[in-house]
Design the sequence.
């Protein structure tokens, strides 16, 4: 779905450029639609990228530690990541419900309910929290060293 959104945004901007060149117009709301698409693309890909180990990761400290200590750091980081993700689920849900209840609207080129832009966030963080639990299990049952993912270490 994220790849389809990337393609749709690319096609929309291509059409906008062609329209500008030919008739001086553009696709109405193209910038705004791309903003919303970027949010959805992030929400759809974050758990998957975490699963593949393709997220942002700095191994500078881990490579200098003893393997067992690096393993403990991996466990600790995954536990913290899960806890923070669960906090973001709770906070995101509260903000989503508050926005829905209050009827807050975003007024730009389009006028839409604010909660339409907020619903992906608690869902994304719930999936990220679940992935952190899977990661915790894999690290706990795996070799007592830093994991090698995404081509690091």
Sequence:
């Amino acid at each position: 779905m994220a790849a389809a959104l990337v393609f749709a945004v690319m096609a929309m901007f291509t059409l906008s450029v062609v329209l500008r060149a030919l008739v001086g117009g553009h696709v109405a709301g193209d910038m705004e639609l791309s903003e919303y698409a970027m949010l959805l693309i992030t929400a759809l890909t974050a758990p998957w990228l975490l699963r593949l180990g393709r997220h942002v990761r700095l191994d500078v400290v881990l490579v200098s530690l003893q393997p067992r200590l690096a393993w403990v750091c991996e466990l600790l980081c995954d536990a913290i990541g899960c806890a923070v993700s669960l906090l973001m689920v709770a906070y995101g849900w509260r903000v989503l419900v508050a926005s829905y209840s209050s009827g807050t609207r975003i007024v730009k080129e389009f006028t839409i309910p604010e909660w339409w832009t907020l619903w992906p966030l608690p869902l994304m963080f719930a999936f990220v929290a679940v992935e952190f639990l899977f990661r915790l299990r894999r690290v706990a049952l795996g070799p007592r060293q830093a994991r090698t993912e995404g081509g690091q270490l």
Q: What stands out?
A: Residues 67-102 form the longest helix (36 residues). The chain is about 70% helix and 5% strand. The chain has one domain: 2-141.
